[in-house]
Design goal:
- The chain is an all-alpha fold.
- 71% of the residues lie in helices and 0% in strands.
- α7 runs antiparallel to α8.
- It is elongated and about 60 Å long.
Length: 196
């Protein structure tokens, strides 16, 4: 089977924004999604967003298009738009990926001012849907609690997360770090000692 190889100028022309026509092969969902992904990967998030807007106008629950547009919006510093697209992708997914919750939390935390509460609640939603054993969601929630200045909440969350862990050393070191940040040196020293 012969394959057509595009040279870079031809490839970039193919990726350029265009108005889809009814007979255009580029107006297909797959074509729009592919073009949007390439545009995002080549540093053109505005073009990617515009291309994916066309696809989502036809298929508003297209999970991959929502996630890709959310990433384009995040690259454009549109935290609210990115969070809304990740929320829509989560709602449209039978079993959403943990990354959707993590990236939505990152978008909310990057807004000005940071929306710590919504970011943390979103991670808790992910833990409720996917199960409490998703360590990446637990760690992200602990980090956000810490960045929000809620050290006691971060410590309590860490204690819940480490309760089911087979190996405690890393969790105990992290607990010691949080206790030290909370100006509780005796408890921090005990946590570090227990990690040995």
């Amino acid at each position: 089977v012969a394959r057509r190889v595009l040279k870079l100028p031809q490839f970039l022309t193919w990726c350029a924004p265009r108005r889809p026509t009814q007979n255009s092969s580029h107006s297909s969902s797959l074509g729009l999604l592919g073009r949007g992904k390439v545009q995002l990967a080549t540093g053109r998030p505005k073009d990617a967003r515009d291309t994916l807007d066309q696809l989502l106008a036809r298929e508003p629950r297209h999970v991959e298009a929502l996630v890709t547009r959310a990433r384009a919006r995040a690259a454009l510093k549109d935290a609210g738009g990115a969070a809304a697209d990740f929320t829509a992708a989560i709602a449209a997914s039978a079993r959403p990926e943990p990354e959707y919750f993590l990236e939505r939390a990152a978008a909310l935390a990057s807004s000005v001012p940071p929306d710590w509460e919504a970011a943390i609640q979103g991670l808790d939603e992910g833990l409720a849907k996917l199960g409490p054993g998703i360590a990446t969601l637990q760690l992200a929630a602990i980090d956000l609690e810490t960045k929000a200045g809620r050290l006691d909440a971060a410590i309590a969350r860490l204690d819940r997360a480490r309760a089911g862990a087979a190996r405690q050393e890393t969790w105990l070191v992290r607990r010691g770090d949080l206790l030290a940040m909370a100006n509780r040196p005796a408890e921090a020293a005990a946590a570090y000692q227990a990690a040995l």
